[in-house]
Amino acid sequence: MPLQQQAAAAHTDVLIIGAGISGIGAAYYLQRDQPEKSYIILEAREASGGTWDLFRYPGIRSDSDLHTFGYEFKPWIDSEAIAGADKILDYLRKTAAENGIDSKIHYNHRVLGAAWSSADARWTVEVERSDTGERISMTCNWIFAAAGYYRYDEGFTPEFEGREDFKGDVIHPQHWPEDLDYSGKRVLVIGSGATAVTLVPALARKAAHVTMLQRTPTYVMSLPSRDPLANGLRKLLPATWAYALTRRKNIAISSAVWRFCQKYPKTARRIIRRMNQKALPEGYPVDEHFNPPYNPWDQRLCAVPNGDLFRAISKGKASVVTDHIRSFTPRGVALKSGQELEADIIVTATGLNLLVFGGIKVTVDGKAVDYAEKVAFKGMMLDGVPNLAFAVGYTNSSWTLKIGLLCEHFCRLLAHMDKHGFKSCVPELPDENMETRPLLDFGAGYVKRSIDSLPRQGEGWPWVMSMDYQHDRAVLRKGEVADPHLRFESTVTPVAEAGNQAA
User: Fold this and answer.
1) Second-level CATH architecture of 163-348
2) How many Cα atoms are found within 13 Å in the side-chain-facing hemisphere of 412?
3) I need a surface site. Which of 207, 321, 388, 424 has the fewest CB within 10 A?
């Protein structure tokens, strides 16, 4: 982060919200494909990196390989394919510095609201300086929302009966104390998602014992932290070639695994169960602790590098308990089964609180936008909201694979509008009563809790939030920009464009 930063411009062509992996990626593609466009990045926090700077809990790492989670344009050259947050953060900040993107980031700038004026064909954005409290107003032609989908200021913690009775520390991973000493202590981790399975083996290195308490098991698979092919190819080929080949291989494998799980869920379940059995001690109750009641990929699979979770269990440093909490007690947690789990520290790895577009209040010609009433167009715009694009990545694969394609399509859309003299475009629903479903259509608890606040998606393209990389590569990277459901307007008279006009 620069020690001093210039004041944000009063007007810019594209205003990017968020300086995490999506926002930095969007800036790169804008510079590459639309170099004549001005842009700035507004970041609410005092540092770039998003998730990878916010979370500081032990062991935090990616749960996807960095050859697909990394940017297509910048090779990942570290020998670790599944890497820790420190390496990912360094990669992101180097990307920003190497491309001059860091000079466009304005820190401590929280976007509070955005008001669209059809008469002016521009947004007026209200910003608060979180370091000074100053309110700033600026304008832009486009907003690109890359602020993620969860609240940065608080994680989700259920109301636990008797929580105040517990005599030890209760910690949420989203707010991990830097000075927390868990050496030689009994740690209880509540949860079974990606954060929990990351924390348990990391904590087990110093703690006396770590217990993972879950209501419902999660599918967990061991993956190698290093990719022998990637590391071998880098010795023989230029880094860009080696990266491209590894990336293509990993995309193919992850797509094949997802499709297999969708088509043959029972077989996939048996395969995962067999792999878990081999990784755990003989006689371990796999069905009790690692056999969920749902099919693989109904929720995201959790990857553990080199089976670190299973190794911690096998060594007796960690254990898993599947039960429901009755209440906290002075010594730990009482379960509905009657058992009490004693602990010195309790970690509530119980999920996120979703927050659409960073909680920005949006109006269109004075009318407030209710996100829950909106339907996503091509997974990047909302019906009835002009000149606003957003970045939501894959939930069944590496997040960034989708972000890159969305950014490319966004830049092609800008070029198309310039070519034809259009100043605004807005998706329009073909049928106000069309069938819809949640935008994030998978069963994670944090999604279910916020389902009523999220935008929706339809049942067919372009109104679906596609999770298919090959499909998206065809339609977002190579497909036409113009669409029968996308209305373009110039500054003089509205123009409804035919859907078969290519970009």
Assistant:
1) 3-Layer(bba) Sandwich (3.50)
2) 16
3) 321
